[in-house]
Sequence to fold (181 residues):
Amino acid sequence: MIVRFSLKNAHVPETIVETMEHRIHQRMDAYFKEEAEEATVISVRITEQKSTYKVEMTMPYLGHTLRTENQEREISLPALDKGIDVLERQMKKLRTRLGRDLRKKPPVFEGAEEAQEVEEDEQVLRVKRYAAKPMSVEDAILEMNLLGHSFYMFNNIESGKAATVYRRRDGGCGLIELEDL
Fold:
């Protein structure tokens, strides 16, 4: 397992970074003992804003991407510990869900809501790109929940089209698929 740190506007002493890496290895190595060392890369991004440290952790696990984000004042170690706890819970939850047969019960969708119009003065602040492997709607919902996002774009294996699942205000999920014109 490789741990990669990225510091953005954060003034973290090298000893703290070494301690953080040691804690990650101490708690996470057991999950990856069967894999080669280079097979898993955990990305840790630390940002500091007004004496508040934000620690974001992203890692692959069983073909899915797990992510957590925590904030703490003064020092980044407590945020890291909380992040590791969250990742461990997500890993256990993922193993449990993958152990069940998710394809037996299809999800019920009530239709997509209309998208809100974007104001002209708004600008794109960040662009994300990722490789989207074909997956079922159930797998996309699982991935969305594991990442802690409110939506997730994917290639729908059933229709072969780009699709988005999203969390509805009523707690359910919705599916948006593009139609050919």
